[in-house]
Amino acid sequence: MKFVCPLIVVREIGVSRAFYETVLGQKVLYDLGENVFFEGGFAIHLRSHFSGLIGVDESEIVEGPKNAELYFEEDDLDAFLERPESVDLDYVHELREQPWEQRVVRFYDPDQHIVEVGEPMESVAKRLLASGLSVEEVAGRTLMPVEFVGELAPVHKSNR
Whole-prediction pTM value? Predict the structure, then answer.
């Protein structure tokens, strides 16, 4: 068996498609009308069509349960956050640092699915290494394996 992708259900396929293309820079792999697959490895499906496929009334498909999110990484998180004012996002929270020192922002898509955009852990580790921390200190702060951090260090520094 092979897992293919997560699929989220949306009210208006065009609105959601535009959101993921415009705000998150996603490219469409396949547009099948009521189902759109993105190169990023997820799909959106039109609620009215999906409800018929699973045999439930549309009203039974709830929005915004806050029990899952779509996670994206952005190498230049600061540039992403400086997007045009014309893109009005409904934030779960604005930029914050997680306990493992990764900077992230969370907001809702048009159907109240949570979207998280964070800096890649490679970037977090490099930022901390550049601040003068040792490989072991960075591994401890980020919860990443020492081997992972060590591969990113220009010169393996150690506090031995």
Answer: 0.90
